[in-house]
């Protein structure tokens, strides 16, 4: 994470330990997290949502270019600073690509995990891309894509792609945007776009 330097990624300065306690020191971002913003205003206007989505793609691509998988991409970990810039935060669960499987792969926030991550299978950059799709869903609709009472039901909903039609929530959504979000949040990682820049 220290090697990632991009305007849309929170800068991590140092990682270490003090008296056996690990710490991460990072850039201070003055603003509001995306979850709070969406709770307050409902959803972003279509043009601002598109701009935000593209900046998220750029920031995530910068992390992936360094071999860093975020693993916990969600609206709470995305800040909108006072200048209206988008900043991906919280690399506390980040990992090096290709080094995660089994119980360790399950770390994260279930509602934004890919099906393969929930099952403890290999976590790759396409797992982050799945989470990106769920964040986009919220950006454009103001609603969470899946509301499930437990992990089993969440996996069932993900595998059957039970996403509520976005245009039924936000009538003005561009059909091309909905098509991209559906492609990005598919249950089969091999069928998802290979990089955030392709999503953009």
Radius of gyration: 16 Å
Report how far the terminal alpha carbons are from each other: 22 Å
Spell out the helices and strands N to C.
EEEHHEEEEHHHHHH
- In one word, what is the shape? globular
How helical, in percent, are the residues? 25-40%
- Roughly what fraction of the amino acids lie in strands? 5-15%
Q: Using DSSP, what is the number of strands?
A: 7
The largest sheet is: 3 strands, antiparallel
How are the strands ordered across the major sheet? 3-5-6
Low-confidence stretches: none
Give short descriptive properties of this protein.
alpha+beta, 3-stranded antiparallel beta sheet, 8 helices, 7 strands, globular, two-stranded antiparallel sheet, 200 residues
Give the secondary structure arrangement, pairings included:
Blueprint: E1 12-18, E2 21-26, E3 31-33, H1 34-41, H2 46-65, E4 68-69, E5 78-81, E6 86-88, E7 95-96, H3 115-118, H4 125-141, H5 151-159, H6 166-169, H7 175-184, H8 196-199
Antiparallel strand pairs: 1-2, 3-5, 4-7, 5-6
Helix pairs in contact: 2-4, 4-7
Describe this structure as you would to a colleague.
The structure is a single chain. This protein has 200 residues and is an alpha+beta fold. It contains eight helices and seven strands. The strands form three sheets. The chain has a three-stranded antiparallel sheet. The protein has a two-stranded antiparallel ribbon with strand order 1-2. The protein has a two-stranded antiparallel sheet with strand order 4-7. A hairpin with a 4-residue loop joins β5 and β6. α2 runs antiparallel to α4 and α4 runs antiparallel to α7. The mean pLDDT is 83.
């Amino acid at each position: 994470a220290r090697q990632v330097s991009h305007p849309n990624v929170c800068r991590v300065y140092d990682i270490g330990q003090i008296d056996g306690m690990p710490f991460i020191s990072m850039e201070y971002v003055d603003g509001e997290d995306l979850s709070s913003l969406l709770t307050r205003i409902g959803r972003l206007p279509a043009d601002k949502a598109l701009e935000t989505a593209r900046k998220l793609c750029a920031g995530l691509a910068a992390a992936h270019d360094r071999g860093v998988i975020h693993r916990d991409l969600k609206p709470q970990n995305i800040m909108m600073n006072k200048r209206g810039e988008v900043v991906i935060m919280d690399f506390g669960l980040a990992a090096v690509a290709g080094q995660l499987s089994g119980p360790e792969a399950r770390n994260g926030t279930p509602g934004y995990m890919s099906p393969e991550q929930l099952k403890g299978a290999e976590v790759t950059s396409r797992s982050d891309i799945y989470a990106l799709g769920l964040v986009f869903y919220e950006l454009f609709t103001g609603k969470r894509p899946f509301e499930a009472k437990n992990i089993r039901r969440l996996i069932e909903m993900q595998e059957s792609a039970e996403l509520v039609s976005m245009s039924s929530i936000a009538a003005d959504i561009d059909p091309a945007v909905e098509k991209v979000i559906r492609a990005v949040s598919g249950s089969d990682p091999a069928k998802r776009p290979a990089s955030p820049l392709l999503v953009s």
